[in-house]
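Q: I'm building a small set of examples for a reading group on sequence design. Run inverse folding on the following structure and report the sequence directly after it, with nothing in between.
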């Protein structure tokens, strides 16, 4: 608590935080020596905003055994008891939203609104949603059975928590895409170990403080601050891994989990296409293209990463988008309304963005707006519009994950769909048209976990609907009933109250009973009845 107060005060005072440390879960390494520290930097200013312990794989083993010991007590609190804690956390989050936003902004360099809309705006309802729906989604189910072998018996399926869930998260949404997955896992009765990105660990620690204040028993939620080796080790000690991050690391996670046959859910990258048809509302489509590509500095897995526009409206669309992108204000976030586009959170990502733009230009693309990594101290890439692009360019085929918008002219809708599907990714897609019936037909042809008409990305707030990637964009999904059932093991019970003391199919076998069984099987299944 004291650590976070100090952190927050320092953020408020906007000073260098070299001396500021957040409350550390394990201040000392397992060998008793002071743990190595990870320095957390504000990408918008280059200033240090905190330090957290760099845990070792040995530390992970220790916290995993504490989580395992704490889990049964949490499960025993039942849905009602757990919901009370989660609803208190919801209230806490809203009451302390400025403090949470400031923490997120300080470690990501995103704008106040990016944190408010897509982080608090997601997590606050998520607490209520999972607290309310966990008992319904995980209720025992009576299974109706046709087989005469089970005549007179009751078959019940129940969902039991897995035990300890490991959540490994990326740096672009420390609350939504990292901590957000802990909420259903906790609601289902699991203990959770959160491994945040080493770039943005402060928000996960603040959530630990919040949950403790809201009555979560000790060790039910723990934060494993560290590097990739901590994430890798975590996989060996948990019963389920919820991973959000790059495709490359996701594959490594799946390989490691295969060693212990630990189930995984992978939410990976995207190269999400937007198709603008000739009958689209151009003003609406241009506003959407601008916001969904530049929001959060383009560092959103389901952002608009590439646009295909039908030839007759291409020039007008480009004009509208270029004007809008050209007017965006970029800089150090200083509270509500101060800037539109924030910093590039992760250093190497800025190099990827720049390399995609340079590659495109070298192959004949034209920069309509932006196109440059600004000089320090903060790390900002100019909001950029690229024209005359094609699929030989990395900006059209690889995830850029930055404030860039490549726009490609296409002759017709069929070609747009072909190009949209010409990708190893399949996370999100959208089609823009006034003819929504045709729009739905086109959306259904797009190879993505979500394909919308005149909307993009907003489905993330639809907690009732599953969200996950096709192709290399992921495995499994979040949200919807499966978004919590995946954190449980299914258990089936056949319950027999009374009945025969010896079933017909039991020993001793006899000619008579075999004949009876044969007749019964023919009668029941021999007529091709459905
Ligand atoms: P990374 O894959 O680099 O890292 C994700 C997490 O995995 C980090 O916590 C990282 O730790 C950890 N990690 C690194 N190596 C290992 C390992 N061997 N075993 C286990 N864990 C490991 O992703 P980024 O942080 O760069 O995030 C950006 C990516 O996330 C983008 O591709 C984006 O599209 C994707 N993403 C997908 C979303 C979705 O819902 N589909 C949502 C948000 C982002 P450390 O940081 O310490 O290296």
């Amino acid at each position: 608590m004291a650590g976070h107060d100090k952190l927050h005060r320092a953020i408020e005072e906007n000073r260098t935080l070299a001396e500021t440390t957040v409350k550390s879960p394990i201040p000392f390494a397992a060998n008793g020596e002071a743990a190595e520290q990870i320095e957390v930097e504000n990408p918008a200013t280059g200033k240090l905003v905190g330090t957290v312990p760099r845990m070792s794989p040995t530390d992970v083993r220790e916290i995993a055994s504490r989580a395992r010991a704490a889990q049964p007590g949490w499960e025993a609190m039942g849905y009602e008891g757990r919901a009370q804690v989660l609803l208190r956390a919801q209230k806490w989050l809203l009451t302390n939203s400025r403090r949470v936003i400031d923490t997120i902004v300080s470690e990501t360099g995103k704008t106040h609104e990016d944190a408010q809309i897509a982080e608090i705006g997601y997590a606050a309802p998520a607490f209520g949603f999972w607290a309310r729906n966990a008992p319904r989604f995980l209720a025992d189910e009576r299974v109706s059975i046709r087989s005469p072998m089970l005549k007179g018996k009751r078959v019940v399926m129940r969902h039991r928590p897995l035990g300890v869930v490991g959540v490994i998260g990326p740096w672009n949404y420390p609350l939504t895409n990292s901590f957000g997955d802990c909420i259903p896992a906790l609601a289902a009765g699991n203990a959770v170990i959160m491994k945040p990105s080493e770039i943005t660990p402060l928000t996960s620690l603040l959530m630990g403080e919040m949950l403790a204040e809201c009555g979560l028993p000790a060790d039910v939620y723990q934060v494993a601050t560290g590097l990739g080796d901590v994430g890798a080790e975590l996989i060996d000690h948990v019963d389920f891994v919820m991973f959000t991050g790059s495709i490359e690391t996701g594959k490594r996670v799946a390989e490691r989990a295969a060693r212990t046959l630990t189930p995984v859910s992978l939410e990976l990258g995207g190269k999400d296409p937007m198709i603008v048809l000739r009958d689209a509302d151009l003003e609406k489509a241009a506003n959407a293209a601008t916001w969904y590509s530049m929001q959060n500095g383009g560092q959103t897995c389901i952002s608009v990463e590439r646009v295909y526009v039908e030839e007759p409206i291409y020039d007008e669309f480009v004009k509208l988008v270029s004007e809008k992108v050209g007017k965006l204000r970029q800089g150090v976030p200083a509270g509500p309304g101060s800037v539109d586009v924030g910093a590039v959170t992760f250093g190497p990502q800025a190099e990827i963005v720049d390399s995609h733009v340079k590659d495109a230009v070298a192959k004949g693309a034209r920069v309509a707006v932006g196109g440059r990594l600004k000089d320090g101290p903060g790390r900002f890439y100019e909001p950029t519009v690229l024209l005359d692009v094609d699929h030989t360019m990395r900006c059209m085929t690889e995830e850029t994950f930055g404030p860039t918008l490549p726009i490609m002219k296409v002759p017709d809708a069929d070609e747009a769909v072909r190009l949209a599907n010409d990708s190893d990714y399949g996370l999100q897609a959208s089609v823009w048209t006034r003819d929504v019936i045709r729009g739905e037909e086109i959306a259904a042809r797009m190879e993505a976990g979500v394909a919308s008409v005149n909307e993009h990305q907003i489905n993330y707030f639809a907690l009732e609907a599953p969200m996950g990637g096709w192709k290399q964009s992921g495995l499994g999904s979040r949200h919807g009933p499966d978004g919590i059932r995946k954190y449980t093991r299914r258990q089936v019970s056949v319950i027999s109250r009374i009945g025969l003391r010896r079933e017909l199919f039991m020993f001793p076998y006899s000619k008579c009973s075999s004949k009876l069984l044969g007749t019964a099987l023919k009668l029941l299944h021999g007529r091709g009845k459905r």
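The first helix runs from residue 2 to 13.
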